[in-house]
């Protein structure tokens, strides 16, 4: 929506947006952030199954948290590009401005401030399409301040007014992407970028309830490969195919799961995957450190101790803790942010309605599980330490499943409990990464797929490294920047 909206600001550019979902703007399961979980496992959610038996959800259905990663994490993006691409601005300074461009931030009102909400004006935009603020129903009980003070006392981590300035290693109360002008409705991409202009922009057509089945090429077998358009179909398992012709560019924005599937169906991907399916490989992209795989793996393994020492100085946030207050219960949701385990997405059929194989490889690197064990131990200490402990009568989960002891539970007990009960928080990235081709990259700094003339990717799949944040603010920033790059190329 972001790219389509920005490009259609130019009346000489025509935009067709093919959208798999319905127009659900009037559905409370979408616009009510307190009810969003009701949409899980419905037709409004992809609910992709994984090889591990878990499910990855993909849509605008989320908790609406508006956070940003560590400034150094964005700066690292440029180091993965060619030297002559550094000036494109894929770094903290460049991304910070585009993330702010996407938002109109409303500072906490007196009621929200009394409950602990704070902000720093320079960290936020004031004229963007996405509305960001704190909810009117923001929780204000004693648990809120007790959680903050316990974290500070127990860990030494600072309490920051606002974590959106590139320094998220802190405890802070975070804003949400919601519109207080409309009774705290979710400020989704469609509400932010389409609704205000849909009756005015005759050069922008949105085709809902259809999926792209593959990209069509005008010069198959040639380099650079040029897209002539896309083939698409109705969103139910329809055998009828339609064609949309592209005069300028094809921009793929189907997300970190569906984008690599579309590319593979179009002949872009690993020839070892495409060949057995009878798909002619147009561009052979391995996406796993390219031809230098063994060399890069050896370099990573040989530098783990140096990396660990550098992180001890940088204080890069590895974990996210969220306090939960439901009825009379106090709880903590937590997950690893910077995981080592890596997975892949591969099609196994030429049928575009068949979900791809998704191999996430949860905890395939032992360090990820070690960090998760340390995090759950810390959560137990948080709830049992003052002042938060004064509001608790004792632990019920995990309780006896992980008997307490001087360690706050054995490694074995925590590992068993975690493996039996964990779930994804649905933040996949990096399946069409923006980095050098020899590192396994799929797109360059202009977000153009290698060896193509007019195909770009603009979604979470281009983000090359995990961030210490929710993805929303970052992805709006990526899309805003992409729109300017595309405009400049016309």
TrEMBL record:
Cofactor: FAD
Protein origin, superkingdom: Eukaryota
Molecular-function annotations in GO: flavin adenine dinucleotide binding; oxidoreductase activity, acting on CH-OH group of donors
Tagged with keyword Glycoprotein: yes
Active site per UniProt: 427, 470
Location of the Glucose-methanol-choline oxidoreductase N-terminal domain: 255-269
Protein transport in keyword set: no
Name listed for the protein in its UniProt record: Glucose-methanol-choline oxidoreductase N-terminal domain-containing protein
Organism: Roridomyces roridus
């Amino acid at each position: 929506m972001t790219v389509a909206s920005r490009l259609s600001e130019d009346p000489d550019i025509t935009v067709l947006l093919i959208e798999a979902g319905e127009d659900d703007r009037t559905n409370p399961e979408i616009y009510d952030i307190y009810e969003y979980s009701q949409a899980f496992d419905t037709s409004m959610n992809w609910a992709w199954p994984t090889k591990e038996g878990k499910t990855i959800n993909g849509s605008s259905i989320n908790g609406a948290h508006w956070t940003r990663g560590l400034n150094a994490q964005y700066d690292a993006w440029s180091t993965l590009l060619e030297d002559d691409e550094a000036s494109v601005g894929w770094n903290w300074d460049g991304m910070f401005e585009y993330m702010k461009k996407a938002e109109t931030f409303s500072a906490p009102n007196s009621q929200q401030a009394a409950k602990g909400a704070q902000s720093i004006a320079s960290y936020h935009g004031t004229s963007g399409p996405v509305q960001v603020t704190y909810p009117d129903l923001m929780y204000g009980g004693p648990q809120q301040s007790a959680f903050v003070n316990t974290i500070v006392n127990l860990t030494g981590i600072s309490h920051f007014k606002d974590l959106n300035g590139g320094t998220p290693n802190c405890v802070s109360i975070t804003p949400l992407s919601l519109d207080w002008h409309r009774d705290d409705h979710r400020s989704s991409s469609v509400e932010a970028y389409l609704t205000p202009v849909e009756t005015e922009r005759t050069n922008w057509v949105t085709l809902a309830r259809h999926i792209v089945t593959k990209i069509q090429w005008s010069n198959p077998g040639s380099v650079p490969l040029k897209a002539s358009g896309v083939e698409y179909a109705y969103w139910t398992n329809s055998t009828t195919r339609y064609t949309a012709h592209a005069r300028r560019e094809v921009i793929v924005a189907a997300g970190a799961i569906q984008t690599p599937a579309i590319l593979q169906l179009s002949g872009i991907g690993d020839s070892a995957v495409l060949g057995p399916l009878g798909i002619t490989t147009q561009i052979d992209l391995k996406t796993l450190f390219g031809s230098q795989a063994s060399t890069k793996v050896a370099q990573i393994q040989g530098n783990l101790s140096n990396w660990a020492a550098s992180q001890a100085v940088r204080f890069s946030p590895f974990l996210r803790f969220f306090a939960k207050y439901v009825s009379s219960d106090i709880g903590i949701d937590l997950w690893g942010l910077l995981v080592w385990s890596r997975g892949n997405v591969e099609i196994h059929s030429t049928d575009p309605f068949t979900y791809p194989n998704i191999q996430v490889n949860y905890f395939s690197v032992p360090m990820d599980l070690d960090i998760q064990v340390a995090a759950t131990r810390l959560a137990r200490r948080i709830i049992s330490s003052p002042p938060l402990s004064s509001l608790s009568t004792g632990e019920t989960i995990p309780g006896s499943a992980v008997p307490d002891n001087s360690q706050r539970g054995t490694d074995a007990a925590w590992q068993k409990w975690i493996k039996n009960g964990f779930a994804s928080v649905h933040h996949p990235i990096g399946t069409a990464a923006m980095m050098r081709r020899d590192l396994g990259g799929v797109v360059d700094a202009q977000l153009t797929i290698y060896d193509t003339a007019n195909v770009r990717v603009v979604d979470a799949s281009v983000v090359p490294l995990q961030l210490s944040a929710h993805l929303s603010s970052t992805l709006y920033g990526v899309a805003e920047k992409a729109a300017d790059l595309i405009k400049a190329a016309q």
